[in-house]
Design a protein that fits this description.
This protein has 510 residues and is mainly alpha-helical. Helix content is 55%, strand content 3%. A four-stranded antiparallel sheet has the order 1-2-4-3. Helix 2 crosses helix 4, helix 4 crosses helix 12 and helix 5 packs antiparallel against helix 11. The protein starts with 18 loop residues before the first helix and ends in a 16-residue tail after the last helix.
């Protein structure tokens, strides 16, 4: 006989409630307040934003994260990284302190800045949660950005922010601090006696601050690390990383729900691909360089300023008097981006294809060149004035070269022996540079390898413009477009200022 539970509800009388309707019955979408410039990104945003804002805010933040990763790859010191990133933050992801407000409170300007920062973080969190590698890289660069901002924050606002976190630590009482005074003084380097007596100390589980324990910068007793006020930022950083990693894992579980949204999925997919190499397009003004004679007869001389991908195409063209379709297309758009007119481009290709007749050239090649410039083709092609020059990201990810083809990125598509031979053929013999390029290629940091060669080839010129301040930091950021490589090389070698032909556009191709 089954015992009846008097507390159990009769299934026939149980109210039928759809758990989905119950969960979303009263959604609370509202604007959030941002009392602090710093944000630990614990609470996701809930208010609505436009699709254009969703896309552009994520792109702006991605620029900053990509530059931070480049600084890490180049072994820049924290001071050098801060100097390099600050003007980029001011341009793309500006966050002003509360003290900058005339009223001394959070005005609409500060609210807008912090709203963009909040939303852009969670948008990229969606984009970079798909794989373990993306989650690890995103957590690393977001941690670097948080550390940079935390250290640059003024003392008062930093303390207010830390108090708001309600971190899991215990303040060391005065009697305990006096009892352990000598141990704290001996175990903590560069500490004065007054710091032990008057400073604010906290104790946490020693696993929370592994970098302090590893560096022997704290006193450990009974599983607790005694952290002085000057080292308490390590606890904040550890808390930030812990929350971010857990948030990324939760986001990864929720990603399948976004597959049905055909508006967001393409944007998120493009953003995750751009984390390898940020995509970039060129403004119309970038096709003009003062004093640069862009003509069919000058291309041989100007090729010394070409990036390795275009240099390889030019050398192959001169050697074989021919390039296959994708090589011609990639090189034609590059020359178009330099400012070569369609008429001059036709002359250049006809002179280069000297093993064929005029009739063959007109039948098989002339139309494709005109199509690239938008002179023929559908209405959309003509209205858009043809195709834009390929960015590094597009060259890396689309149409890998096959047998007998010369397009693509040599750093990615060449074997290391062939790549070394090509670099030496273009004048790169420095062993340290070649060794660094090999390491970058092994770690799939292709754009870093290209920038490494650029920095070596223009070492003296870069030191000059950095020393006299004629170029802004934003004009010396990481190169992610072949045409930017040429323009920057030409301007540096010619002794012109960065304003004469600025590098990358503010918009990225989507």
């Amino acid at each position: 006989m089954i015992r009846h539970d008097s507390n159990r509800i009769d299934p026939r009388r149980r109210a039928t409630i759809d758990h989905k309707k119950k969960q979303f019955a009263s959604p609370s979408h509202k604007e959030q307040d941002y009392p602090h410039r710093l944000n630990i990104y614990h609470v996701p945003p809930t208010a609505e934003i436009r699709l254009e804002e969703f896309e552009q805010w994520a792109i702006d933040r991605l620029r900053i994260l990509a530059e931070l990763e480049v600084c890490t790859f180049r072994n820049k010191t924290p001071a050098e990284t801060a100097d390099h990133i600050k003007p980029l933050l001011d341009q793309w992801l500006r966050l002003d302190p509360n003290s900058s407000s005339a009223q001394g409170c959070i005005d609409s300007r500060l609210q807008t800045q912090r709203r963009k920062d909040h939303y852009s973080h969670f948008i990229l969190r969606l984009a970079f949660s798909a794989t373990e590698d993306l989650r690890r890289r995103f957590a690393r660069v977001e941690g670097a950005l948080f550390r940079l901002r935390f250290q640059a924050e003024n003392v008062r606002e930093r303390q207010d922010f830390v108090r708001s976190l309600a971190l899991d630590w215990e303040v060391v009482e005065e009697h305990e601090r006096r009892t352990l005074a000598q141990d704290l003084l001996n175990a903590t380097p560069n500490l004065k006696k007054a710091d032990v007596q008057d400073g604010i100390w906290v104790k946490v589980d020693f696993e929370t601050v592994p970098e302090l324990v590893e560096g022997r910068r704290v006193f450990v007793k009974a599983g607790k690390a005694y952290v002085p006020s000057k080292e308490q930022m390590s606890i904040v950083f550890a808390g930030f990383h812990d929350r971010l990693e857990k948030g990324l894992e939760l986001t990864a579980r929720a990603l399948p729900r976004l597959d049905e949204d055909d508006r967001l999925s393409p944007i998120l997919d493009h953003l995750s691909k751009n984390f390898a190499t940020p995509d970039s397009s060129l403004a119309d003004s970038d096709t003009t360089l003062p004093g640069a004679p862009i003509s069919p007869s000058s291309i041989d001389h100007l090729s010394q300023h070409f990036p390795l991908c275009m240099r390889n195409l030019h050398m192959t063209l001169r050697k074989n008097s021919h390039l296959k379709h994708f090589g011609r297309f990639q090189y034609t758009l590059f020359l178009k981006g330099l400012g070569l007119t369609m008429e001059d481009c036709l002359i250049f290709w006809r002179q280069s294809f000297k093993l064929i007749t005029d009739d063959t050239f007109n039948k098989e090649y002339r139309y494709n060149i005109r199509h690239a410039y938008g002179d023929v083709g559908g209405d959309a092609i003509r209205r858009g004035r043809g195709y834009s020059p390929f960015s590094c990201q597009k060259i890396l990810t689309e149409h890998p070269p096959g047998s007998g083809e010369s397009h693509g990125c040599p750093y990615r598509h060449f074997s290391i022996d062939n790549l070394t031979g090509l670099l030496q053929a273009t004048g790169v013999y420095d062993r340290d540079v070649l060794r660094g390029v090999k390491e970058d290629v092994d770690k799939k940091r292709y754009h870093i390898a290209c920038n490494r060669v650029f920095d070596w080839a223009h070492k003296a010129e870069l030191q000059t413009v950095k020393g006299n301040g004629t170029w802004r930091a934003t004009e010396l950021d990481t190169i992610v477009h072949p045409n930017t490589y040429f323009k920057r090389s030409y301007l540096l070698k010619s002794g012109l200022t960065g304003d004469s032909g600025h590098g990358q556009d503010e918009q990225m191709e989507m």
